[in-house]
Write a structure and sequence with these properties.
mainly alpha; 4 helices
């Protein structure tokens, strides 16, 4: 069904979901890196690492925006193809 929605098979919002997933993974890795000094007893990392860790939340929001955009496009398409009553 998904390939029937558009010629290329990609829905609006798919790109946002992919970008959000990448940002989330980068942020998750940075979060693990920032927590490591607590267990290893080393000096904390610079502030930039903590800022990169915030990409996890940003990635989640970007992916959620992509999901909402995809839902809106599917609903719009369903309204256009539904028979008028």
């Amino acid at each position: 069904m998904r390939s029937e929605t558009t010629a290329s098979g990609a829905l609006p919002g798919d790109g946002l979901i992919r970008v959000g997933a990448v940002l989330f993974i980068i942020g998750a890795i940075a979060t693990l890196v920032t927590v490591a000094p607590l267990f290893l007893g080393t000096d904390p990392f610079p502030t930039i690492v903590y800022l990169v860790a915030m990409l996890m939340g940003v990635g989640f929001l970007v992916a959620a925006a992509g999901v909402l955009r995809s839902i809106a496009a599917q609903r719009r398409q369903a309204r256009e193809t539904a028979p008028s009553a």
